[in-house]
User: What shape does this take?
Amino acid sequence: MELSLSIESFPLSAETAGDMLRLLDGLETDYRTVTGAAVWRSDDARGFAVLAYTDKGELKGFATAIDIVNMHHYEWSAVVAPDLRRLGIGKALAEGIHHGLEQRGAEGALAACIEEDGTDEFLDSLGYVSEFKEMQLRAKPRPDFSLPAGVIVAPAEGEDGADEAAHVLAAAFDDDILPVLAHNIADSARLVWLMKAEERTVASATTFTEDDCLWITALGTHPEARGNGYGEAFLHWSRKLAADLGLSGVMLDVETDNDAIRLYERAGFLPVETVAYWRRQ
Assistant: This one.
């Protein structure tokens, strides 16, 4: 069997995306999220795919690299048909990714993978070292929730809203979060929210919809407002929002060593899978 590799930039053609989805559909593990399936055909997404086709036009493997927040920092992941995983296709795909990243002037990149047998050995052979791990958690919609008296959640509108979100998030994290916030504000598919208690902004978060789920990102509570249950209230409110929108659930990512996991579990979020991130030495 002869294989040829090619690179296609986002947005991918309908034919290419269809071939990739058919390959994923035949696998036991769901790789759609880690390979960014929701944005393959998006005009707003910055990324590319490396494709391994047979001489008969059958896709046997692919890798995707995505600049998540348009800061020239990519996350990439590769998938190979199970019967061909020992033929070196994964290594060839990784080399294609490295070439594509160099062409695009990437300032950083992480390999993202679902933890499975053989994954560590594969990335180690490519000269990667483990950086951190994130757990994906999911909660069911909750149509019966109401915010506590005096607490509201509303979109961050205009410059004043953006400034309020920046003030809260910089205090909750640090200034490194501000480019992420700027990306979230600029992306029309994302909505930045402010939580206010007695007219004082106490928390902020961003939501977007992907694969019939509401995703939460950049959730932060101002340090002076912590300990009052605002973060947990926002999580429950997001479950109510998902119910109102007719979505199947709410998703979020959190690093596995983050104490906030207990907060998410109290709010009804349960682990789905763990994604490991690796950095090339």
Q: What stands out?
A: The mean pLDDT is 95.
